[in-house]
Specification:
Oligomer: single chain
CATH topology: UDP N-Acetylglucosamine Acyltransferase, domain 1
Largest sheet: 9 strands, mixed
CATH class: Mainly Beta
Number of strands: 27
Number of helices: 3
Helix content: 10-25%
Length: 252
C-alpha cells in the first residue's frame, strides 16, 4: 500500500484531495465538465490561464503538473509527473490516449518532461522522461510516436537485464520539428530545429537542423527546402482555408 501511494501523489493528503476531485468531476462530459475541471483542478495542479481538460484524463502527481494557457488535454490522456514534473506550454494540444510519464522511481537527477508552446502531441504517443525530455515550440508529433529517454543495460549475459540497471541521457527536440507516425526517438538524441523525421524511422543519433531523416536506423535523405524526388509541386493549404499553387504547378 505504501508503494502504491508513493507512486500516486506527493503525500496522503494530496492523494485524497486529488482522488476526490477526480471522482467528482473527472468523468463529467461535454463543455460542462471542461468548465468544471478548468475551475476545480486549480486546487491540485498549476494552471496559467485556462486549460481545457476532457473527461477521462488521468493525472498522477498532479501537484507537479503545470499547464499553460490554452492547453488542451484530450480524452484518455495520461500524465504521470513523478517526481520531477511535467510542464506543457501555452497553446499545446495533447491528443487522445497519449501518455507522458516521467517514470522516475530511481532518483534520476534530470528526469522530467517539458513541452513548449503551440505544439501538438499526437494520438497514442508515449513519452518516457527518466533522462529528461525537452520538446520545443511548434513541434508536431504524429500518431504512435515513441520518445523514450531511458535504456536498459544488458552487457552481462550471466545476469537478467532487470538487475543491470539503466542509463538515462535525455532527449531534446528543438523548435519547429515534425515527427511522422510511428517514429521512435531513442535516448541521448537531439533532433535539430526545423528537422523532419519520416514515419516509422528509428532515430539513434542526432538529427542535424533542417534535414529530413528516414529509415532504421534513421539517416539523412535530404535537406529541408530541396525539391521532392518526383519534382511534382502540390497545392498548399493554410490555416483559414487559403490555398496556393506553386508557380508552374500542374494540378489537373
Amino acid at each position: 500500500m505504501r508503494l502504491y501511494l508513493h507512486r500516486q501523489a506527493t503525500s496522503l493528503p494530496r492523494y485524497l484531495l486529488e482522488q476526490l476531485l477526480f471522482a467528482l468531476v473527472g468523468g463529467v462530459p461535454t463543455v460542462v465538465g471542461v468548465g468544471l475541471r478548468a475551475l476545480l483542478y486549480r486546487l491540485i495542479l498549476h494552471m496559467d490561464g485556462v486549460a481545457a481538460i476532457e473527461d477521462g484524463v488521468r493525472l498522477r502527481y498532479a501537484s507537479l503538473i503545470r499547464l499553460g494557457n490554452g492547453v488542451y488535454l484530450d480524452q484518455g490522456v495520461y500524465l504521470h509527473a513523478c517526481p520531477n514534473g511535467i510542464t506543457i506550454g501555452e497553446g499545446t494540444f495533447v491528443m487522445h490516449h497519449a501518455e507522458l510519464h516521467v517514470y522516475n522511481f530511481r532518483n534520476l537527477p534530470h528526469a522530467g518532461i517539458t513541452v513548449g508552446r503551440n505544439s501538438l502531441i499526437g494520438e497514442y504517443n508515449v513519452i518516457r522522461g527518466q533522462g529528461g525530455v525537452r520538446i520545443g515550440d511548434r513541434v508536431y508529433t504524429s500518431p504512435l510516436v515513441q520518445i523514450a529517454a531511458v535504456n536498459h543495460v544488458f552487457d552481462d549475459p550471466t545476469r537478467p537485464f532487470v538487475e543491470q540497471g539503466i542509463t538515462a541521457q535525455g532527449i531534446t527536440i528543438e523548435d519547429d520539428v515534425w515527427i511522422g507516425a510511428g517514429a521512435i526517438i531513442t535516448d541521448g538524441v537531439t533532433v535539430g530545429r526545423g528537422a523532419v523525421v519520416a514515419a516509422g524511422a528509428v532515430v539513434t543519433a542526432d538529427v542535424p537542423p533542417h534535414t529530413v531523416v528516414a529509415g532504421v536506423p534513421a539517416r539523412v535523405i535530404r535537406n529541408v527546402g530541396e525539391r521532392r524526388g518526383d519534382g511534382r509541386p502540390l497545392p498548399i493549404y493554410y490555416a483559414g482555408g487559403e490555398a496556393r499553387v506553386p508557380m508552374g504547378a500542374d494540378v489537373r
